[in-house]
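Dear all,

This email documents one entry for the complex benchmark we are building for the journal club exercise. For each entry we list the sequence lines for every component of the assembly. Then comes the predicted three-dimensional structure of the complex as a token string, followed by one or two observations. Please use this as the template for your own entries, and keep the labels exactly as they appear.
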Amino acid sequence: MDDSSEISPLLQERTDDTPSYQAYNTSESGHSPDGLISAAVSDDGLISGDKEDPHLLNAKFEGLDYDVCENVLYQKEEKAKDEKQILRQQVARWVVMFFIGFLTALIACAIDIGIKTMSKLKFHVIKIYFDQCMDYSCLVIPFLLWVALDVAFVFCAALLTAYGEPVAAGSGIPQIKCFLNGVKIPHVVRIKTLFCKVIGVMMSVVGGLAIGKEGPMIHSGAVVAAGISQGRSSTFRIDCKIFEYFRHDHEKRDFVAAGAAAGVSAAFGAPVGGVLFSLEEGASFWNQGLTWRIFFASMVSTFTLNVFLSMYHGKAWQLSYAGLLNFGKFEDITYNGAEIPLYILMGIVGGLLGALFNHINLKLSIFRNQYLSKPWKQVFEAVLVACTTTTVAFILTYTVKDCQALGKDPTLHPLQVHCHDGQYSSMSALWFQTPEESVNSLFHDQKVALFGLFYFLLACWTYGLSVPSGLFIPSLLTGAAWGRLFGIALYSWFPDADWVDPGKFALVGAAAQLGGVVRMTISLTVILIEATGNISFGLPIMIVLMIAKWVGDIFNEGLYDIHIDLQGVPLLHWEPPPMTSHIPAKEVMSYPVTTLRTTENVGRIVDILKKEGHVGFPIVDNYDPDAPPRLCHRFGCLRGLISRSQLIVLLKYKAFNHPTTGKTPNTVQLNTHHFTEIYPRFPSIHVGITEPHE
Amino acid sequence: MDDSSEISPLLQERTDDTPSYQAYNTSESGHSPDGLISAAVSDDGLISGDKEDPHLLNAKFEGLDYDVCENVLYQKEEKAKDEKQILRQQVARWVVMFFIGFLTALIACAIDIGIKTMSKLKFHVIKIYFDQCMDYSCLVIPFLLWVALDVAFVFCAALLTAYGEPVAAGSGIPQIKCFLNGVKIPHVVRIKTLFCKVIGVMMSVVGGLAIGKEGPMIHSGAVVAAGISQGRSSTFRIDCKIFEYFRHDHEKRDFVAAGAAAGVSAAFGAPVGGVLFSLEEGASFWNQGLTWRIFFASMVSTFTLNVFLSMYHGKAWQLSYAGLLNFGKFEDITYNGAEIPLYILMGIVGGLLGALFNHINLKLSIFRNQYLSKPWKQVFEAVLVACTTTTVAFILTYTVKDCQALGKDPTLHPLQVHCHDGQYSSMSALWFQTPEESVNSLFHDQKVALFGLFYFLLACWTYGLSVPSGLFIPSLLTGAAWGRLFGIALYSWFPDADWVDPGKFALVGAAAQLGGVVRMTISLTVILIEATGNISFGLPIMIVLMIAKWVGDIFNEGLYDIHIDLQGVPLLHWEPPPMTSHIPAKEVMSYPVTTLRTTENVGRIVDILKKEGHVGFPIVDNYDPDAPPRLCHRFGCLRGLISRSQLIVLLKYKAFNHPTTGKTPNTVQLNTHHFTEIYPRFPSIHVGITEPHE
């Protein structure tokens, strides 16, 4: 819809040239050391205006407005606020934080209980057929049944993700990291995404894939936070008309950080780790008050989870379920100084294996981007992986003879398989229990290293599929396997040393592997400290994570950062790359810059919004010596910045000035409400001002 | 020394008026809501140039240069850096962090061992006389001896502080907080201060004052960090010529933050708490990489302390001394939801009592500022407090009959006093052991509430004396006392309930009282979680601290903030006070502003530096339409900012331009080294350019 024909009789056409700044020295070619910086600035001359053009990576991503826009409207409303309103907003923040923690924990409970219930069902169904069959001839039936069930579950998960909401794939941590750092990943915090994520992760885990559910929990917390804090839902088209003062990008970001922390807290029983996770990932906006509120949300989350899971397990108020991930009894482990070189060695191994994992996964992901971009192909690949995983599990179960006496650990799913009566196959138990239970087992029981190797490869293939999946558990499991091996080897060399506890080395290996893959530092250390409940073991864990990160960083980045790069997200890291801190911004900017004047022709605004993909435009004016100090230049002075969404609101409400009288005819007097009401789904200029586009 | 007469024949006298910006609307009187903002801007017209004028609070404090000065010199050197240099700096940072943690822990060990040794000696000497005397007639002798010994110790501590280094008084936490937030408190991180602090706190504790040593540990860590990172010492006049690249305010600040964290870590065995403490107090400059390094320093600190104290106690490598403060066995305490209302109540009590403590201490401190400003009066007051403390201890020991069987706890100092053979007076033990041991006792043994009341009053009188003293232990002790009372009361009402554990309520009371006094939030929660070794009890602790803070904030600020205000330190808080966020800076600025031109007369520079106390001057130039965009105005354009210290260096090296040729005659080519070499003791303009003034 072209407004200019309708409006132009009312407005004076401007005839002077649009002023713009001279660019400086753009003949020095735009030096963009890692490809990220050039992607962050808008390309110039986006004539086609096609947002879906895959060759223009940057066009896919908009920035979030994390600066508070202190315009006249804002200042007027700030002045008009009374103490009661300020107090109400403060209280509202705490109330929202409480519910973020509470609901995130409930969702975590639901996921956990759902997975356990469905897993039990699956196990019982398969057990019937396994028990009927004690020799190899009739094994085909239970095998096919097992495969069919797994495929069915994974098929559902992949369908939901590939066709329902692709941004629900993976863990969600890279997307949340981008969101917290100012890049708007489309649909990342929608309720629909939450739905696909929750159902999808349950299906994937029950389907036996080599994944964990912790990452998706963090994403879920973020969505819950975004939803509650805005008091509305686009998916359900309801607007509770509360929390309007939170309908700004920077407010939403603060709550999303709390949601992510609550998710970590529920997943690992690690409230402080959750806070540090949000800090570490979304460093740019930390402030004291926010950290305290995020901590509150985390605490509420772990407490709520604790209460509900305790009630579910019939031990109400015993509060022994701080998080979904239970490492077992590590509170009493100690270490002595002589072991530190061993930990350093394990850290090196973790860094190497983690770098290898990331490298393989990177190659796989590039392959997927090129050849498996169609949804049906993605679903097919997921099904294929499910088949393979189940087949491997089946083969290992039958070839590895590792029978344990029944009753050793009642939470496992005992299958007799080829063992004698009164015994069960521990290898089969590994595959039938949830991955979290396997973590516990590997830390404490005798398992075979073969499991570790195959799990490593399967996990590497699995991450990046079109299903919601977490990375933590597969990495912990893999590391626990080789760590335990290491411990067992040590034990055989030093049978008398009581400090050689294979379970302890399994824990160290798990930390090393996880650190080698994700390369997180302080938050991961604290998460593991809290999850193990052992503070004094914090130093070995820290050493191991530090070494793993340093070694891994020699080869490649952490897996989350790799996937962010793969998707071409223009994420600016905290520090500039080495040797680039002296490069001035002008060397990477495009030219010319599209600017608007303080009074602008509506037709020109509409043209610009249609032709260009920019989301912000500098406003310039002529140099006025008597005005207050401004950033000035021959061609004009910088007056401010206006965003696309603000222009859209002005156009929508036709808040125009009459060209000669300067009065505003037949329009509403704009206030912040007009902006927060449409936030965040500002209509597109292309489809007309009446329909949402995002 | 007036340079202008020497220089002026070489330079052209400028005759045009010095341009300066017009101020805007200063008729609207400078609205300064809490007195802090007006103190932060320099007064204009400081004709006398007297920095010691007590009526000009702001003149006492300079700001620290926390922005990186990206001038031509800096940019040239950044470009010239090669990868090797960058790597070397990175490695150096980690090495320095290691030694910060290591040395801080050693100092903490030294303090701890020193206190324990001297306390034992004092106890043995007094015990001889006590044992000789079993009736009341001859008690005068041991009493006078006890008083004499305590007075002697406290007298030494007060002498060192009042005459040696006054900034060593108190805990040091307020000063470190100011330093981390950009206010230069004179002498706060000098080695001399460290010396006075360490010796002083040992003397004060042994002298029986109602203080703790934890706060001084944090200050000590900060000094160690400042010293090591600069590779030099002004006190010892040595310059190791290393770490020159760290000789900037922002680098020093980063290391000081690490030192403070290492101090917390050593004091409480709380490395994560230490990191959060630095974060919470010095919020303005947080970044990811720094947090990881600070965590490393904290971990090294607690590990080193652990190793050395274990060796000292003959249990090498058992590593059971994570921190100097030992809360005893709290790892197994649990709670249920029904107790939460009780915790909320205790939080309210803690907030009220904390606000009362702060109020009394504030009144006392105002009195001290007015009437006890002379050092000898301060020493006298300290001695008086020591006498009173000892007398109270003595009287309580003899009037409160609380005998326990010997051998109950071998670390106490048993005095038979009035008890039967084989028993000892537990009240006397409370007064003879170190305060940290008392914490443990009060948490776990039967003690009288009288102790709590008197300790509250003595602690209130003691904080603010001219001795190094910490606040944490007195607050914890007081809270433990009333918390335990509360637990005992509950126990008498519900004798059958097994959840009523007076020790647990002592812990909650301690947290409430400490939170009510210092009003710290997340860092204190985590410190207490780590110190008790109990993560699940984190939620009650957090609730209690939150309530105590909210209740206390109704009446007054935290004690550290109160003392910062008392000293008139122009500390800008994170958030503006409520209802002030719309006030523009121009309404609180002074006028006119002293500016310099890009080429300036040496004589004028010298005059300005002598007459005015400013530490920074804007540089303005005429409007040039062809120049790159600048902040411009009728009267000129802002070109940059130059600091007093930079001007001093230019004057010192006579880096002048010849007025006609523009060449630089007979001077060195300045580089960053010239600035870092003199940092931080830039000479004063008054005493000539050759002597340091700071």
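Observations: The mean pLDDT of chain B is 78. The two ends of chain B are 18 Å apart (CA to CA).
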